[in-house]
Design a protein that fits this description.
alpha+beta; two-stranded antiparallel ribbon; 22% strand
Length: 147
């Protein structure tokens, strides 16, 4: 795996998803995080799944547009919706399920739209993330004691 072109850094403080804060190192993200009402929490703030869905939808939308430009395929309006589902695992933890929905106007053939989405999926880093993260040599959680 090559060296990263860019590394995003975010920090969670306080109580994590139970009323903590998530911030980016550049200060552009600074949000309170809450446990979902569906999980017995108070809700009323964003959650990690929403942040993941927003990132993936934005990234995939850019991938669709880049692939279309490279293939000289024009379309009018476009929307990408990412759904991230949180489910319980057999081991007692939680896992994620994901779905992407892409809408494009001005493309006459469904096959062309399907081909464009498949090509975008192949180049979008979020779409490749699960396999890429598990193969990453620097993906090793670490602990540091605060004194």
């Amino acid at each position: 795996m090559s060296e990263p072109v860019y590394t995003a850094t975010a920090t969670s403080t306080g109580d994590g998803r139970a009323g903590g804060r998530a911030t980016s190192n550049d200060g552009l993200i600074d949000v309170t995080v809450a446990i979902l009402r569906e999980m017995g929490g108070p809700g009323g703030a964003t959650n990690p799944e929403q942040l993941f869905a927003a990132g993936w939808a934005s990234c995939f939308h850019s991938a669709v547009k880049a692939v279309a430009a490279g293939q000289k395929i024009g379309f009018s309006d476009s929307t990408v919706v990412a759904e991230i589902g949180l489910h319980r695992t057999e081991q007692g933890g939680f896992g994620l399920a994901a779905a992407l929905h892409v809408e494009m106007g001005g493309i006459e053939q469904a096959a062309a739209a399907d081909s464009l989405v498949a090509a975008a999926y192949a180049v979008c880093p979020y779409s490749n993330a699960p396999a890429a993260i598990s193969r990453s040599p620097w993906m090793a959680p670490s602990a540091e004691l605060c004194r």
